[in-house]
Specification:
There is one protein chain. This protein is an alpha+beta fold. It has one domain: 2-Layer Sandwich (Dodecin subunit-like), CATH 3.30.1660. Helices cover 24% and strands 45% of the residues. The chain has 2 helices and 3 strands, in the order βαββα. The protein has helices at residues 17-27, 61-65; strands at residues 7-14, 33-43, 46-56. It has a 3-stranded antiparallel beta sheet with strand order 1-3-2, with helices on one face.
Length: 66
């Protein structure tokens, strides 16, 4: 029995807000993108951004029953 990945989450690192927004714009080209979030983080080295992307793939019921 084959396994199909229906939901995929990705996390990307960016050093600037503009770079984080470009990652989101590139991901928006994929029709399966369902949500995205840009989080601003700080540590002793400075500021950085974490981009969370969620993709959902609709699989026909017939494939899932096989």
């Amino acid at each position: 029995m084959a396994k199909y990945e229906l939901n995929t989450k990705e996390q990307h690192f960016a050093t600037t807000r503009k770079e984080a927004e470009s990652i989101v714009e590139e991901a928006k080209e994929d029709k399966h993108l369902t949500s995205w979030k840009i989080s601003e983080k700080h540590n002793k080295y400075g500021q950085y951004f974490v981009v969370d992307l969620t993709f959902t793939y609709n699989t026909p019921k017939e494939i899932m029953e096989v």
